[in-house]
Design brief:
The chain is α+β, with helices and mostly antiparallel strands and 758 residues long. The protein folds into six domains: 6-38 and 121-172, no CATH class; 41-117, Arc Repressor Mutant, subunit A, CATH 1.10.10.1600; 200-380, no CATH class; 389-564, no CATH class; 577-680, Beta Barrel (OB fold (Dihydrolipoamide Acetyltransferase, E2P)), CATH 2.40.50; 684-752, no CATH class. Helices cover 44% and strands 17% of the residues. It contains 31 helices and 17 strands. A five-stranded mixed beta barrel has the order 10-11-12-14-13. It has a four-stranded mixed sheet with strand order 1-6-3-2. A three-stranded mixed sheet has the order 7-9-8. Strand 4 and strand 5 form a beta hairpin. The radius of gyration is 32 Å and the shape is globular. Residues 683-687 have low confidence and may be disordered.
Length: 758
Amino acid sequence: LSMPDIDVDFDDRRRSEVIKYVTQKYGDDRVAQIVTFGTIKAKQALKDASRVMALPYSVGERLTKAMPPMVLGRDIALNDLVDPDSERYSEAAEFREIIETDPQSQEVFKLAKGLESLKRQWGVHAAGVIMSAEPLMDVIPIMKREEDGAIITQFDQPPCEELGLLKMDFLGLRNLTVIDDSLQNILQNRGQTVVLESLDLNSDQNTFDLLSSGDTLGVFQLDSDNMRSLLRLLKPSEFEHISAVIALYRPGPMGMNSHTNYAQRKNGLQEIDGVHPELAEPLKEILGPTFGLIVYQEQVMAAAQKVAGYTLGQADLLRRAMGKKKPEELAKQFEIFSQGMARNEFSKPAITALWDTLLPFADYAFNKAHSAGYGVLSYWTAYLKANFPAEYMAALLTSVGDSKDKLAIYLNECRRMGIKVLAPDVNESIGVFAAVGDDIRFGLEAVRNVGHNVVESIIQARTGEAFSGFDDFLTRVGQQAATKRVVESLIKAGAFDSFGHTRRSLTAVFEEAIETASVKRKQTANGQVDLFGGILDDDPSVVQVPDLPEWTKRDLLANERDMLGLYVSDHPLAGQESMLMRNSDMGTIALKQSDIQDGETVTLAGLITQVQHKVARTSGNQYGQITLEDFSGEISIMFMGKTYLENRQHLVADQTVSVRGRVSRRDEEMMMQAYSIDILDAGREQGGVLKLKISDSLATKERLLKLGAILDANPGPCEVQVRLVGASDRHFMLPQRVSVGHDLFGELKALLGTDSVS
């Protein structure tokens, strides 16, 4: 028997406190973190071999691309590519053809086989901590990390456990931080204290409605696309279903299609059958609650006890052997398992059927305690999203503040949920995202060039009395928060919008205003008082802000994106959702999270935000690189050779396009190599009609004159239809025809409201 596997999750901000606690409690000579050794995998071995032989990068790349795809998260071993007895031998015909016809590739392959599985580097286990009853120096070799003095074992986890040392996993879990921040947001925004531990895990209908609809983006363990599809199929109606789906959504049970079978059986769409007819009755009590399927590790152990006569200790050893997949140990266990079942008069087909069902499952599955524990967190986060959406999404956005891609995903989810994400505001914002009523206010620390100390200075200055205007802000915040760089960033991010000036107006005078405010601060510090300051209408100590029209929507959003990393108040593609869907296979983030393999062809649509025209150093050939952005994120796309020469005139920033190309995956990075590009213009679509919705209260003469001027300034082929909403709706066509684009959409939304244009 071995020590138990103990995993404990903590708020990731406080994991270091836990390690400090156990070190102090048990002694710094008896507690250590665990070393890990990274090994060279098959693909990396091929690339490394190619590099050390001073061959072009393309040689290694060609070989890795010819390898069969991963199965259940694992690459095929190099030897299996050429071993006729390997199960996946037939998939590697292309790879073998390359090494058989290319002597250079054959040499690379030969060297790579020697590199495969060698130790590449050492690291530290993300969660594991070793604890010993005796001083560790008397048991294993240890070392001290130079950067922080942390004590680390020189043996990795398996030898430490075999020596009888206790290993515990102290995991820093971001979702616990999100939950804690959500509860604080609820208290601050609603004055309500929520005690999650007191919730009935089977009673909240809002939560189960959210789970059944698959609206679980941002919910712990349940936010991947495939998991959300599974939830829509399963339609959970009690906590046990959440626990089961977490256990089933693993490579082992998915390899047996158990996740889909469970969902269909739960809803009466599939007949419940056993592993084998002979095992139906003996395993009924064990498998009945999970519709005849093996879901938990405890079921593996219980089945071995029931039908093969294992003791509880022997059953645990069987589970561990199945997980480690050591052939000699598995052969030994299969012999014991077969003999035990044979003694209970089960046939060989029944024995084989049960073994083949248990074996792939035991490799990855959770035990029920682990699955149920994670299920509780899943239920809590789903409960918070369903019942306190603004507070939960604010905490979620704060937790991914350092990831531009994830911020874009969750901001888009807020828009889908009808939650307004408001621009930062010097009077309202704190450092991080915060719930304000049913909306979310951007945090000041997210603004470029605005650090934590600046935010603290702003919050301290407004305590007791809000800033009354731009000049008041500059005068009261102090020098640290009133630098030109900080103020310009705050203007462009929209943090002064509540003062009633356009961002363009403030940009025109902010440098002069800062100088004036600096003089006033010095005078105040020296005891000098302006007797007429604030009394006269035209106070000479206050810089007058001109009344300039706002920047165009395109420039406004571009500045916002530059300061915040993404669009907040609006999106330049707003109103073009249906056009993008018609001209693309999927979104950028959906592509990155998909199973689409290197070399496959896809079509994406979005806005070109960056363009670079380059010349290759070695060949001298011209090529281009663009960044394509849609509502969910962005991706880099290369235009090479003939494709670039034929389309370089179309590679223009702020242009909406559809690009067809080949996916290129390199390690964790994904790009595309373009085959073609099409310019998309909503106004040029055949039979295009721009539809405007105007309420009676907004249909003033002044506003309608402005509307006419905007339409006249954008002539084109698209008809304009107006729906006047009041006591009775009226529809009529306007005489103008327009060219629909980002600027027109932006101006119309600014004049008539964000939901007025379709």
